[in-house]
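Section 5.1 Outputs to date
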Amino acid sequence: MTSIHDCSVESELLAGMRLARRAIGSGELVVIPTDTVYGVAADAFSAEAVQRLLDAKGRERTSPPPVLIPGIPTLDALAVEIPEAVRTLVAEFWPGGLTVILRAQPSLQWDLGETRGTVALRMPANRIALELLSETGPLAVSSANLSGMPSATTAEAAHEMLGDRVAVYLDGGEAGTDYKAIGERPGDTSSTIVDATGIGADGSGELRIVRAGVISRERIAAVVGESLLAPERTVIGPDATDGAPELVDGDADADVASADATPADAASADAAPDDRTDAAAS
Protein backbone atom coordinates (compact mmCIF):
# COMPACT_ATOMS: atom_id res chain seq x y z
CA MET A 1 0.00 0.00 0.00
CA THR A 2 1.39 3.40 -1.01
CA SER A 3 2.22 5.86 1.77
CA ILE A 4 3.07 9.58 1.53
CA HIS A 5 5.05 11.28 4.29
CA ASP A 6 5.46 15.01 4.94
CA CYS A 7 9.13 15.20 5.88
CA SER A 8 8.71 18.67 7.42
CA VAL A 9 6.99 16.88 10.31
CA GLU A 10 9.57 15.06 12.43
CA SER A 11 7.35 12.07 13.25
CA GLU A 12 6.40 11.60 9.59
CA LEU A 13 10.03 11.97 8.52
CA LEU A 14 11.11 9.20 10.89
CA ALA A 15 8.26 6.91 9.83
CA GLY A 16 8.81 7.67 6.15
CA MET A 17 12.54 6.99 6.30
CA ARG A 18 11.93 3.70 8.11
CA LEU A 19 9.39 2.58 5.52
CA ALA A 20 11.59 3.81 2.66
CA ARG A 21 14.53 1.72 3.89
CA ARG A 22 12.26 -1.30 4.19
CA ALA A 23 10.83 -0.75 0.70
CA ILE A 24 14.26 -0.45 -0.88
CA GLY A 25 15.38 -3.62 0.90
CA SER A 26 12.31 -5.42 -0.47
CA GLY A 27 12.97 -4.39 -4.05
CA GLU A 28 10.19 -1.78 -4.12
CA LEU A 29 10.31 1.83 -5.34
CA VAL A 30 10.55 5.03 -3.32
CA VAL A 31 10.10 8.63 -4.46
CA ILE A 32 12.58 11.03 -2.86
CA PRO A 33 13.29 14.75 -3.09
CA THR A 34 16.62 15.89 -4.47
CA ASP A 35 18.18 19.29 -5.02
CA THR A 36 17.09 19.18 -8.68
CA VAL A 37 13.82 17.29 -9.23
CA TYR A 38 12.03 14.44 -7.44
CA GLY A 39 13.44 11.02 -8.20
CA VAL A 40 12.09 7.49 -8.12
CA ALA A 41 14.62 5.23 -6.46
CA ALA A 42 15.43 1.53 -6.48
CA ASP A 43 18.19 -0.68 -5.11
CA ALA A 44 20.95 -0.29 -7.70
CA PHE A 45 22.13 -3.86 -7.05
CA SER A 46 18.73 -5.48 -7.62
CA ALA A 47 18.05 -6.16 -11.30
CA GLU A 48 14.39 -6.79 -10.51
CA ALA A 49 14.03 -3.46 -8.67
CA VAL A 50 15.74 -1.55 -11.50
CA GLN A 51 13.43 -3.18 -14.04
CA ARG A 52 10.47 -2.22 -11.85
CA LEU A 53 11.71 1.38 -11.96
CA LEU A 54 11.96 1.35 -15.77
CA ASP A 55 8.52 -0.26 -16.08
CA ALA A 56 6.97 2.32 -13.74
CA LYS A 57 8.26 5.15 -15.92
CA GLY A 58 7.51 3.41 -19.20
CA ARG A 59 11.15 3.35 -20.27
CA GLU A 60 13.24 0.79 -22.10
CA ARG A 61 16.49 -0.81 -20.97
CA THR A 62 18.23 1.40 -23.52
CA SER A 63 17.61 4.31 -21.10
CA PRO A 64 19.39 3.09 -17.95
CA PRO A 65 18.92 5.14 -14.77
CA PRO A 66 21.74 7.06 -13.15
CA VAL A 67 23.00 6.13 -9.71
CA LEU A 68 22.92 8.49 -6.73
CA ILE A 69 25.68 8.02 -4.17
CA PRO A 70 26.16 9.23 -0.59
CA GLY A 71 29.66 10.67 -0.97
CA ILE A 72 32.72 11.19 -3.14
CA PRO A 73 34.55 8.09 -1.77
CA THR A 74 31.88 5.90 -3.41
CA LEU A 75 33.11 7.13 -6.80
CA ASP A 76 36.08 4.76 -6.75
CA ALA A 77 33.93 1.83 -5.67
CA LEU A 78 31.63 2.15 -8.68
CA ALA A 79 33.83 3.55 -11.48
CA VAL A 80 37.25 2.99 -13.01
CA GLU A 81 39.65 5.17 -15.00
CA ILE A 82 38.43 8.30 -13.27
CA PRO A 83 40.12 11.31 -14.91
CA GLU A 84 41.71 13.92 -12.69
CA ALA A 85 39.40 16.48 -14.27
CA VAL A 86 36.39 14.58 -12.90
CA ARG A 87 37.87 14.52 -9.42
CA THR A 88 38.33 18.28 -9.68
CA LEU A 89 34.75 18.76 -10.85
CA VAL A 90 33.15 16.65 -8.12
CA ALA A 91 35.28 18.37 -5.48
CA GLU A 92 33.81 21.66 -6.72
CA PHE A 93 30.20 20.71 -7.46
CA TRP A 94 29.31 17.74 -5.22
CA PRO A 95 26.98 17.53 -3.53
CA GLY A 96 25.02 19.26 -6.26
CA GLY A 97 23.58 19.23 -9.75
CA LEU A 98 26.42 17.55 -11.64
CA THR A 99 26.13 14.05 -13.08
CA VAL A 100 29.24 12.38 -14.50
CA ILE A 101 29.29 9.42 -16.89
CA LEU A 102 32.24 7.10 -16.25
CA ARG A 103 33.38 3.55 -16.98
CA ALA A 104 31.73 1.22 -14.46
CA GLN A 105 33.70 -1.15 -12.27
CA PRO A 106 33.55 -4.41 -14.28
CA SER A 107 33.30 -6.52 -11.12
CA LEU A 108 30.02 -4.97 -9.98
CA GLN A 109 27.10 -7.37 -9.73
CA TRP A 110 24.33 -5.16 -11.06
CA ASP A 111 22.15 -4.69 -14.11
CA LEU A 112 21.06 -1.12 -14.81
CA GLY A 113 20.09 -1.80 -18.40
CA GLU A 114 22.08 -1.39 -21.62
CA THR A 115 24.82 0.81 -20.19
CA ARG A 116 27.62 -0.38 -22.51
CA GLY A 117 29.91 -0.53 -19.51
CA THR A 118 29.24 2.98 -18.24
CA VAL A 119 27.51 4.44 -15.21
CA ALA A 120 26.17 7.93 -14.52
CA LEU A 121 26.85 9.08 -10.96
CA ARG A 122 25.72 12.01 -8.84
CA MET A 123 25.81 13.06 -5.20
CA PRO A 124 22.68 15.13 -4.50
CA ALA A 125 22.61 18.16 -2.20
CA ASN A 126 19.51 17.16 -0.28
CA ARG A 127 19.60 15.99 3.33
CA ILE A 128 16.70 13.56 2.98
CA ALA A 129 18.22 11.91 -0.09
CA LEU A 130 21.67 11.79 1.49
CA GLU A 131 20.37 10.30 4.73
CA LEU A 132 18.56 7.55 2.84
CA LEU A 133 21.63 6.90 0.67
CA SER A 134 23.84 6.65 3.75
CA GLU A 135 21.65 3.82 5.00
CA THR A 136 20.84 1.99 1.75
CA GLY A 137 23.97 2.56 -0.29
CA PRO A 138 23.86 3.55 -4.00
CA LEU A 139 20.41 3.88 -5.50
CA ALA A 140 19.33 3.80 -9.13
CA VAL A 141 17.31 7.01 -9.36
CA SER A 142 15.45 8.38 -12.35
CA SER A 143 13.23 11.46 -12.45
CA ALA A 144 9.86 10.73 -10.83
CA ASN A 145 7.72 11.11 -13.93
CA LEU A 146 6.30 9.06 -16.75
CA SER A 147 8.57 9.03 -19.78
CA GLY A 148 7.84 12.06 -21.95
CA MET A 149 6.13 13.99 -19.15
CA PRO A 150 7.58 16.99 -17.27
CA SER A 151 9.82 16.22 -14.30
CA ALA A 152 8.11 16.35 -10.92
CA THR A 153 9.23 19.15 -8.61
CA THR A 154 6.76 18.13 -5.89
CA ALA A 155 5.82 14.80 -4.32
CA GLU A 156 2.20 15.44 -5.29
CA ALA A 157 3.12 15.76 -8.97
CA ALA A 158 5.15 12.55 -8.77
CA HIS A 159 2.23 10.73 -7.14
CA GLU A 160 -0.18 11.91 -9.84
CA MET A 161 2.01 10.26 -12.47
CA LEU A 162 3.33 7.16 -10.72
CA GLY A 163 0.57 6.38 -8.22
CA ASP A 164 0.74 3.00 -6.50
CA ARG A 165 3.65 1.83 -8.64
CA VAL A 166 5.72 3.43 -5.86
CA ALA A 167 5.56 2.11 -2.29
CA VAL A 168 6.69 5.22 -0.37
CA TYR A 169 6.71 8.94 -1.21
CA LEU A 170 8.94 11.22 0.86
CA ASP A 171 7.59 14.76 0.55
CA GLY A 172 10.43 17.20 1.10
CA GLY A 173 8.74 20.29 -0.32
CA GLU A 174 9.43 21.83 -3.70
CA ALA A 175 12.61 20.50 -5.33
CA GLY A 176 15.11 22.65 -7.19
CA THR A 177 14.57 25.74 -5.03
CA ASP A 178 18.29 26.22 -4.33
CA TYR A 179 19.04 26.66 -8.02
CA LYS A 180 16.01 28.90 -8.54
CA ALA A 181 17.25 31.08 -5.70
CA ILE A 182 20.68 31.67 -7.20
CA GLY A 183 19.19 32.21 -10.64
CA GLU A 184 21.45 29.83 -12.57
CA ARG A 185 19.70 28.63 -15.74
CA PRO A 186 16.27 29.96 -14.58
CA GLY A 187 13.49 27.41 -14.96
CA ASP A 188 15.93 24.53 -15.44
CA THR A 189 15.98 22.11 -12.51
CA SER A 190 17.77 19.14 -14.10
CA SER A 191 21.36 18.18 -13.41
CA THR A 192 24.12 18.94 -15.89
CA ILE A 193 25.48 15.70 -17.36
CA VAL A 194 29.14 15.44 -18.30
CA ASP A 195 30.45 12.43 -20.22
CA ALA A 196 34.00 11.73 -19.07
CA THR A 197 34.55 8.49 -20.97
CA GLY A 198 36.35 10.39 -23.74
CA ILE A 199 39.32 11.12 -21.45
CA GLY A 200 42.14 8.61 -21.78
CA ALA A 201 44.35 7.21 -19.03
CA ASP A 202 47.02 9.71 -20.07
CA GLY A 203 44.63 12.61 -19.63
CA SER A 204 44.16 13.18 -23.34
CA GLY A 205 40.73 13.66 -24.86
CA GLU A 206 37.72 15.79 -23.99
CA LEU A 207 34.83 16.05 -21.58
CA ARG A 208 31.46 16.31 -23.29
CA ILE A 209 28.42 18.04 -21.85
CA VAL A 210 25.56 15.81 -22.99
CA ARG A 211 22.84 17.68 -21.15
CA ALA A 212 22.78 21.31 -20.09
CA GLY A 213 21.35 21.76 -16.62
CA VAL A 214 21.66 23.77 -13.43
CA ILE A 215 25.46 24.05 -13.66
CA SER A 216 26.48 26.11 -16.66
CA ARG A 217 29.18 25.29 -19.17
CA GLU A 218 30.93 28.48 -18.10
CA ARG A 219 31.21 27.30 -14.50
CA ILE A 220 32.55 23.91 -15.61
CA ALA A 221 35.06 25.59 -17.92
CA ALA A 222 36.18 27.84 -15.07
CA VAL A 223 37.15 24.72 -13.11
CA VAL A 224 38.73 22.47 -15.77
CA GLY A 225 39.48 24.91 -18.59
CA GLU A 226 37.59 25.50 -21.83
CA SER A 227 40.20 23.54 -23.80
CA LEU A 228 39.15 20.30 -22.06
CA LEU A 229 35.51 20.65 -23.13
CA ALA A 230 34.26 19.34 -26.45
CA PRO A 231 32.65 22.01 -28.66
CA GLU A 232 29.02 22.76 -27.91
CA ARG A 233 26.45 20.86 -29.92
CA THR A 234 22.78 19.99 -29.69
CA VAL A 235 22.22 18.62 -26.19
CA ILE A 236 19.69 16.21 -24.83
CA GLY A 237 16.37 17.92 -24.33
CA PRO A 238 13.84 18.23 -21.51
CA ASP A 239 12.87 14.55 -21.52
CA ALA A 240 16.34 13.81 -20.25
CA THR A 241 15.28 14.71 -16.77
CA ASP A 242 17.08 13.85 -13.65
CA GLY A 243 16.83 10.47 -12.79
CA ALA A 244 18.60 9.49 -15.88
CA PRO A 245 21.17 10.27 -17.02
CA GLU A 246 18.64 12.16 -17.32
CA LEU A 247 22.50 11.03 -13.42
CA VAL A 248 17.36 12.56 -9.83
CA ASP A 249 20.97 14.03 -9.39
CA GLY A 250 19.18 12.62 -9.53
CA ASP A 251 19.71 13.86 -11.50
CA ALA A 252 18.44 13.34 -9.66
CA ASP A 253 19.21 15.41 -11.57
CA ALA A 254 16.87 14.49 -10.56
CA ASP A 255 18.94 14.51 -11.80
CA VAL A 256 17.27 13.48 -9.55
CA ALA A 257 17.05 12.79 -8.93
CA SER A 258 17.20 13.67 -9.66
CA ALA A 259 17.17 12.91 -11.62
CA ASP A 260 18.35 10.70 -16.88
CA ALA A 261 21.57 9.99 -18.88
CA THR A 262 22.56 7.49 -21.52
CA PRO A 263 25.87 5.70 -21.95
CA ALA A 264 28.46 7.91 -23.54
CA ASP A 265 28.39 6.39 -26.99
CA ALA A 266 24.63 5.99 -27.04
CA ALA A 267 23.46 9.48 -26.12
CA SER A 268 21.05 10.98 -28.63
CA ALA A 269 18.54 13.80 -28.82
CA ASP A 270 15.62 11.44 -28.25
CA ALA A 271 17.16 9.36 -25.47
CA ALA A 272 17.26 10.42 -21.87
CA PRO A 273 20.71 10.25 -20.38
CA ASP A 274 19.66 11.56 -14.26
CA ASP A 275 18.29 12.26 -14.33
CA ARG A 276 22.27 9.58 -14.56
CA THR A 277 17.72 11.48 -10.52
CA ASP A 278 19.93 15.60 -11.84
CA ALA A 279 17.99 14.34 -9.56
CA ALA A 280 18.18 11.17 -10.61
CA ALA A 281 15.96 13.17 -9.98
CA SER A 282 17.29 11.61 -10.56
